[in-house]
Each structure stands twice: as structure tokens, then as C-alpha cells.
Amino acid sequence: MIDLKEICGEKIYERIRERFGDDLERIIEDLELEKLMEIDGIGKKTALKILKAVYEEKTGIEFQDILSGDSERIYSGIIDILQEYPVTKEAKNKFLLFYPTNNRDFIEKRLKLCDESIELLSRIENLEEVLKKMKKMKKLEYQKEKKYREYVIITDDEKVYDSLDKKYCDVMLVSSTEEVKYFSENYMSVIYVYSDNSDLYEEIMGEADVVSHIRSFNIEEAIPEITLNKFLINRDTIESAHRIYSLLGIHSFLDDVIENLKKIDTEEKEIDIDRIILEVERKINKEIEERIEKEDLSIDGRNILSIMEEIKRSESPIDVIKRRMPSKINEIYNEILKKYNEDVYRETEISILDLFPPEITFPVEADYEKVEEMKTYIKKSRFKKRYRKMKEIANIGRYWKEIERITAEIFEIDLKIAIARFIKDYNLEKPVFIERGISFHNGRNLFLKEPVGITYKIGETPETFVGNERVVVLTGANSGGKTTLLETILQIQILSQIGLYVPAERTYTTIFSEIQYLAKQKSMGAGAL
After folding, report:
1. Of 65, 66, 387, 490, which has fewest CB within 10 angstroms of its CB?
2. What values do phi and psi take at 219, rounded to 5?
3. CB–CB of 526/478 below 8 Å?
4. Rounded to two decimals, what is the model's pTM?
């Protein structure tokens, strides 16, 4: 990593760090230098210093500032054109590293990249669709620390406790089974990590949902959401990568990843127990009223007197009344309760029989303490079912390194497509390097909409249409094309030493150690100096 403090100075560095925080390294890595220039005290000169440092780190060669004078302006114009072609920010920023050099090996390496780019573009059948999907590609995001509140890790070994990572969930040191039971009641999942020195192993393992020795413990395996969230927050990018690979005819494991991510979408429908119970209560009471009104449930005089006599002797008159009511009432109640229990079970696979009294009371009411117990039971059961499912899906975690590679590769593909389209649109050709001179046929100025081709030569080249003079004097009337010619020569030379194709035919040129261009200021009239 480059030393930004050394480049910018401590005060400006602190200002940058305060503004961007942990994103600073990513901004530099992604060459988002325009963001750094938002900071007071950082101008183009400082941004260029940073670019040079990043250039050396990424390319592995020393940055050679071979441009001077107005050649920098010509170079910037070329980069502006190049950056119009990529559809991803990452590929656009890669062109900032396309700086001219006099390193022959590096230039040849770039020219080889051009050849590969042309070959790649020739194989793409549906370019428009590929670029459309490419626009959705982003750098992979890495989620900041998140606590998974449903989980608790427990251990009875202090050394194990000290070694456990505490950023993902609560971690507790326990010394009794009572503590374990408390955690079991208050967390969805208890993860027990033990060691060879654990004294409570036998007592705890029966209460824990996950048991692992510290030597084999892996928190991402114990909490599958840690792995899956990496995939979920990058799902759009992964799906775009999958579609791009398909369009390019590249087979990969991404099919498996996409299919597994779809499984996460098929979550079980939430069960609103409170709503179900209230609705069942209402229906039971309404139907009991309707049925009892239709039934003959009269009690003869003798039974009434017997009931009254029993009530007088009893300490619980209500129990007497309930016991001496016609059995038909309880039969009706049990029949209605069974019917609605079957309805609820079909919808939720939950039995509600135990939530209502065994004998009729009116109005019928559920036991809400039992309802709360059932809600906790259902929540835990659903969590365990979902956990098993997430654990199985989390096996896609083995693909993460490859997804990182594929993402980077797609940005490289975007870069190659951009280079090939640039070459195709401007009808560029590969230059040939010689020792002393430059010549070309039909050279065109990239900055003009309808350029007129120019054939020119300076120095010794295989061309013989003029002599081998190494110094020439360019003369002509104002607005006669002198500046256009000079800019065209510069564009051809700069592109050649970047390692790109050039806007001319049969180009022969030398790798120069320095490129200078001194242009007359506009206030001084037309022409070049």
C-alpha cells in the first residue's frame, strides 16, 4: 500500500482520513482520484503524485514522466476518449494507468492486450446485451461487522473464551448448567465450544444446539448467515456476472450459486399465532351460540332441585353447575374445537387443542400463557429448520474466492471490450517500432469529427516517399493545418508509447525517452510554436 502521508503531508492526510475513513484504501485502490480532489489542499499536482505511486505499485515498473509541455493536454484528451468506452467505473479508472512509457517490454505487453481485446470482441455475438449486464457490475462489498443476536457462543474454559471472536454474536463464559439453561431459553441457538479442559462437557452438550471443539471450531460454519450475507449483499453483481458469463459462453460454478440463492427466497410464511387464536375464539363462540340455540338442552324439575341441593352443600358451586350441565353442551364444544383445530392444522401444521380448556366455558378463551409458550416453541422450531437450510446453502461459501476472481475478470473484460471498440471505431492499427524516426500513412486527428488523413515522415524509416531528415521546419498559412498535424503526430506517438493501436496506417515510430510539445497560446494567434 502506498504511503499517502508521505505524498500529501500529515495535515492533508489527516483531513483525507477524517473525510473517507475506512473507504480511503478502497478509493485509492480503485483510482477514484476525483474524490480525493474534493479535499481542500489536494490539487491536480498532488492527485498526479498519488496516481504515479499507484501506477508503480500496480504495474511493477518505475513511473517515467516522459510528457512535458502541452503533450500532457494531448494525453488527457486521449484518456477522455478512452474513458467513454467502458461501462463500469472500475474499467474507466484502469485507463488512468495507461500512461506512456519508454519501457519496450511494457509497451509490447500492452499491444498484446490490444490483440487479445480484438479477438475477444470478435467472439461476442450480443455485445449490446453484454454491455447492458456489465453496467450492473460493481465491486464486491464487504459487510461491516454485524451482530447476530439469535446466537450465543458459550464455553466453560477461560482460555477458550479469551480466544473466541466476539464481533459476530454474544460470547459467554459459563460455570453452571443453570446459566446454560438461561441462555437456551433466551437465544435461538446456543453454540458450545469446549476444550480438553472443559469440566461441564457432559452437562452442557445436551443443552447446546451446536457443539464443537476449539481446535475445529469455525464461526462461519456455526453461523451460516456470516457466509450467506456476503453473497446476498452482492447478489445483483453475482447475477450480472452469471448472465455475462452465459452470454460469453463461459461455463462456471455460478449456476450452482444462483440456484442456491434462489432457495433463500423460498422462506416459510410467517405464522401470526395471535391473529389465528383470536379468529378461532370468535368462530368457536359464535358457533356455540348458534348450535345451543337449536339444541333441546332443557333440565327437568327433579334435576334442577338436585343441582340446587348440591350447590348448597358444595364449596365450589361453579364446579357443580359445570358438572351437572347436559353432556351435549361439552360434546358440541369439543366437536367445534376439533373442527377448527383441523382447519388451523391444515394451514399451519400446528395443533391448538391444548390452548383451549378441556371443558366448555363461555365465552371460550384460550390460555394465553400457553399461547406464549407455543409462540416461543414455534419460533425456535422454525429457526432450527431454517438453520439447517441455511447451513446447507452456505456451502456456496467455497466459491467466494472464485467470485472475487470472476468479478475482477469481468472488469478486465470490460476494459478489453472498451479497447477493442476504440480500435474499431477509430480504425486504428498496430505501430511498428524502429530505431530513428517516425512515419505514417493516412494519419487522423482523434479530436476532429471528420479528420483529413495525413501522410508524414521524419527521420529514418522503411518508407521512401521523402528523405530521412531528422529535423524539419513546418511552415504554412494560419489555419492551414500545422497544429492539426502536430497534434496528430503527438497522438500517434503517445498512443504508441502507451502500448495502444494508432490512428494511422503503416506506422513506424521510435520509442522516445521524452515527448515535448510547446503550443502557442491562443491569445498569440493561430499556429504552433
Report:
1. 65
2. -65, -30
3. yes
4. 0.75
